[in-house]
Design goal:
Strand order of the largest sheet: 2-1-4-3
Distance between the termini: 33 Å
Oligomer: single chain
Number of strands: 4
């Protein structure tokens, strides 16, 4: 009976490539964004606030990234009946807002990315660009 398993993690270069992909997409859309990348346990690997983005969006972007990493699915996929209770129970660490996506490579969960400061659609578009920058799986 094995007591260990093989895991994968994002490299520093992967985090930087995701961040640059997100920044480029945000610039192209004309909407400055807050971008947060976490590992599979929710530890922040990168946090960046573009000039002109809403500073409080760093909090929502962090919650989106941690939610996506925790559930292995987009942050807005939480059931409607659970969104407010989970947000309250975790003091805002979990959110049902759109803009958080899991980071997967070959099906292995590596973490999550959260983007905030635009509309939910804009946030998710920027997150998808970051995933594409490293060839990650896109749901």
């Amino acid at each position: 009976m094995p007591f260990t398993e093989t895991t994968a993690k994002l490299t520093d270069e992967g985090v930087l490539a995701m961040l640059q992909g997100a920044i480029d997409a945000a610039k192209a859309s004309g909407q400055p964004q807050c971008i947060v990348i976490v590992d599979q346990s929710g530890v922040v690997l990168s946090s960046f606030r573009m000039n002109g983005s809403r500073y409080l969006s760093l909090k929502s972007a962090t919650a989106k990234a941690r939610t996506a990493a925790s559930i292995g699915a987009p942050s807005d996929s939480l059931p409607d009946h659970a969104k407010l209770p989970l947000a309250a129970a975790t003091r805002g660490e979990v959110t049902g807002l759109r803009g958080g996506l899991p980071i997967r490579s070959a099906g292995v969960l590596l973490g999550g990315i959260g983007v905030g400061s635009g509309s939910g659609e804009q946030d998710e578009e920027v997150a998808r660009a970051a995933l594409a920058a490293i060839g990650a799986d896109v749901a």
